[in-house]
Specification:
By secondary structure, this protein is an alpha+beta fold. The chain is about 25% helix and about 25% strand. The chain has helices spanning about 10-20, 45-55, 115-120, 135-145, 150-175; strands at about 1-5, 30, 40-45, 60-65, 80-90, 90-95, 100-105, 130-135, 185-190, 220, 225. The chain is globular and about 45 Å long.
Length: about 230
């Protein structure tokens, strides 16, 4: 990720390196610091547009790689709204609720042009546009129906591991803060998107900061602890 306009030179060098290695410019997404709900988001696939979007006129932005091949649901892009409760990071105790939901884009994703926001962005209800939501049990059923039985059982541990690693990183970046020392309790809404790949259903060894035997996974009132 790149903070703009401060890291614009680094972003340009990064894009040029990708162009040389891939033979094309991958898609980047630009998000305003002071906005949410997909407002002000821009997708760019050329260096000229990237430079234009990164100028000071547009204000501070965060630039990162766009997930060009997301895992689709009913042929549409989607993301998960998860709820994470942090009881302590020392010792590490983070709960993930099994009661989540998915937000689906309104239009099919494949072959959609970059300017078609209803295909690329999963939040549209705040613009007065009807939007599909899918509760947890239907997400599990739909994934198993589209990608084979057991799909969700493979995806869910990876989701929990990713969330656990994310909060460990936060604790490591501020080792002397209250957040890392366990003097913090909070509930977060986390939006997460799954990327597709050919062997995504094949179990893979996950890398964690702590040894595997120190990771706790348990159920408590519908929440999982990692």
């Amino acid at each position: 990720s790149f903070t703009l306009p401060h890291h614009l030179p680094e972003l340009v060098l990064h894009v040029q390196a990708l162009q040389a290695s891939l033979g094309r410019t991958p898609t980047f997404i630009f998000k305003p610091w002071s906005s949410s709900r997909s407002r002000g988001h821009v997708l760019a696939r050329s260096l000229d547009v990237i430079l234009m979007t990164s100028c000071k006129t547009f204000g501070p932005r965060l630039a990162c790689h766009y997930i060009e091949w997301p895992l689709l649901l009913r042929g549409r892009k989607w993301d998960l709204r998860l709820y994470v409760a942090v009881r302590s990071l020392s010792p590490f105790t983070v709960f993930v609720s099994r009661q989540f939901y998915a937000r689906l884009a309104n239009l099919p994703y494949l072959d959609a042009p970059l300017h078609e926001t209803q295909a690329h962005f999963t939040v549209s209800k705040y613009d007065g546009v009807d939007q599909d939501f899918c509760p947890a049990h239907l997400v599990r059923e739909q994934l198993d129906a589209e990608y084979g039985n057991g799909t969700w059982e493979i995806a869910w541990p990876r989701i929990c591991a990713t969330l656990a690693d994310t909060f460990r990183i936060l604790a490591r970046r501020a080792p002397d803060g209250a957040f890392a020392q366990g003097r913090c309790r909070a509930v977060y809404g986390v939006d997460l998107m799954l990327a597709a790949c050919r062997d995504w259903q094949t179990p893979q060894q996950q890398a964690h900061d702590a040894p595997q035997q120190h990771r706790r996974v348990a159920l408590a009132s519908g929440w999982e602890c990692s």
